[in-house]
Amino acid sequence: MTLLLCGVHAQGTDDDAFRQEQLSSERVSRAVKQYEDTLRRKFHDKNLKWPPADIYLRAFKLPNEMEVWARDKYTEPYRHVYTYRICAISGKLGPKRKQGDRQVPEGFYFIDDFNPRSEFHLSLLLNYPNYCDLTQGEKNPGGDIYIHGGCLTIGCLPMEDEGIREIYALCLSSRLNGEESIPVHIYPTRMSKAGMAYLFRESGGDASHYRFWNTLRHGYEYFETHHKLLPVMYSDDGTYVN
To answer: N- or C-end of the chain: fewer Cβ atoms within 10 A?
Structure first.
């Protein structure tokens, strides 16, 4: 069994150098200046400290939504702060398994890099492919999956330029405040009883997809009950284990 604890991944970049690199970008400094007060108010309205100590992003492909959750201490449950609209989704429901399939990944990821010079204004790289994707996907599962600006996608999560400026400023503030790995979980839809019934109908008899969705469901249900995240664990064949 392979274990990955969200929040312990090292960026491999000296904190001061990272801060200087990011804030020396006009796009980034402008985004921080434009949205810091707005973000501060949103967090204070939820009785949360700013800058954030610990944030979590949860995306749903079917309703085109990305939620922001936060907490002040590692031992506390997360609180919902606000929800963004994802501008567009490519592909269909189901995980990404190969290069060029236009699929938005589904699974448990974290932000792996901050790109202030993106072709799509600003972008946040996810650690796709993870162990599950590498093990269960094809030989070349693809890569370069971002949360980014604009409204075009062939597998990424586009938030339009205004949205990515605020999200980037949020994530950067949390990163500079000590959160080295910001978790990002991507679901096909809300994994409620009704949602699972819908996925069963939509699976079109693809049992492998439905088995995969059931492994995501356990993480979803745990968070819905406790507002805390399970550690990300895999079996030897790459299946998520909860």
So the answer is: N
pTM: 0.93
Q: Write 196-200 long-range contacts (CB < 8 A, 24+).
A: 199/93
Q: What is the pLDDT of residues 8-23, one digit of tens each?
A: 334 444 889 999 999 9
Taking the C-alpha atoms of residue 79 and residue 100, their distance in angstroms, rounded to an integer, is 36
- What is the spatial distance between Cα 168 and Cα 139, in angstroms, rounded to a whole number? 32
Tokens 């079996």 correspond to 235
Q: What is the distance, to the nearest Å, from the Cα of residue 79 to the centroid of all Cα atoms in its chain?
A: 16
SS3 content of the chain, % helix, strand, coil (to 5): 35, 25, 45
Question: Are the C-beta atoms of 179 and 191 separated by less than 8 Å?
Answer: no
DSSP state of 107: E
Q: Is residue 234 within 8 Å of 2, Cβ to Cβ?
A: yes
CA distance 210 to 215: 9
CATH architecture of 2-231: Beta Barrel (2.40)
Q: What sign does the dihedral 144-65-7-120 (CA atoms) show?
A: positive
Q: Are 94 and 199 in contact (CB under 8 A)?
A: no
| pLDDT grade for 4, boundaries at 50, 70 and 90 | very low
